[in-house]
Amino acid sequence: MLLTPLLPFPFISVPKNSPHLKSPSFFLIRSSSSQPMDTNPQPKKVAVCGGGVIGVCTAYFLSKNGASVTLIEQSSVACAASGKAGGFLALDWCDGGPVASLARASFNLHRSLAQELNGSESYGYRPLTTLSVSITESSSSSSNRTGPIPSWVDGPAKSPRTIGSTDSTAQVHPEMFTKRLLSKAMEDYGVELVIGKVERVEMAEGKTRGVVLEDGREIDAAAIVLAVGPWSKRFSILGSLFRVYGIKAHSIVLEPKEANRITPHALFLTYYPAQGGKPMDPEVYPRPTGEVYICGMSAQAEVPDDPEQITPVPESINTLKRVASSVSSHLVEGEATVKAEQACILPCSEDDVPIIGEVPGVEGCYVATGHSCWGILNGPATGAAMAELILDGRASIVDLSRFSPARFASAVKK
């Protein structure tokens, strides 16, 4: 059975007197002398800036572990890359690199979250078989059916190779995942969502005190998490320390007439255009919603002030449509409805390693950004590690030393 199509999510600013916040953990138990009891300290107030997957995962694990969390998002939750990404998950594809432990921990967290939140039904979590396939545009040769190519891939596919099994690769619908996780955090753990643009971080004597929004609202907090992806340069305390740049990636979402014919096989293509030139590397992800997501055509781009201002380049969208029709007759326009033509900007650090940790010299100010194309995969472990770091002083699920923003401060001193 196909998942129900994604419905609009009613995110609004939740007032302080909301029933969501009226749980025992949000009130001090006082003695007759009105002094707080040591056994039930006041929850730590944390403001998380950014309603993408990294910010939402951080808010989820912070609140689940007892913090009083306000999540602040400028536009709408999962409106940028977290709503337009592919949602592909891989256990071991980052092995041998600095992100290996983060990716493995996060892949396993995705699996446990899917069990906890009924992810197969609520946000399209499922294991996948992943294939590498070569396709030449306008080629008249038929697919090589001696390999593991599924029947719906009836274009000129060659050199098929299995590069991921149902034990090592999986997927989620990224927008549905992000919103489901936040819904759980709001309903069960009292997270407050505020829609507004953060203008600055308030500090006093080297410590964070909260944030001020563009409309003048002030949100007090003992700790601040800046999880604003490619918009990190807005904040001088980050921009003066490191550079995060944006990669603009394009995607289309198709709905085939015969969606039940499309099996759960993710395709990583080596695609040779008809006009020649270097091969491209688009990716194809069928979803249990009955849709097929196709992405590619990426290049460095300037980051606009508002995520709603990110628009696709028509030529890139047309290329992805040609890719779709070359892969399968089920994905040709007419046989499939185009549900979305879109682009998003992925946050990349200057050394291609995520930046996760406390900002040097600013006590109580934390950052989590630079996850590139692996943001959906690495969101849960990043959020869990940030929660541990903020509440316990150190992360145990993943060693964050390799990701610390302090590495840039050391480079500047040299």
TrEMBL record:
Keywords: Oxidoreductase. It comes from Solanum lycopersicum (Tomato). Residues 137-168 are annotated as: Disordered. It holds the Pfam family DAO. Residues 137-146 have a biased composition (Low complexity). The lineage of its organism: Eukaryota, Viridiplantae, Streptophyta, Embryophyta, Tracheophyta. This is FAD dependent oxidoreductase domain-containing protein. InterPro entries: FAD-dep_OxRdtase, FAD/NAD-bd_sf. Residues 45-389 form the FAD dependent oxidoreductase domain. Signal peptide: none annotated. One of its GO terms (molecular function) is oxidoreductase activity. The keyword Cytoplasm does not apply. It comes from the Eukaryota. One of its GO terms (cellular component) is cytoplasm.
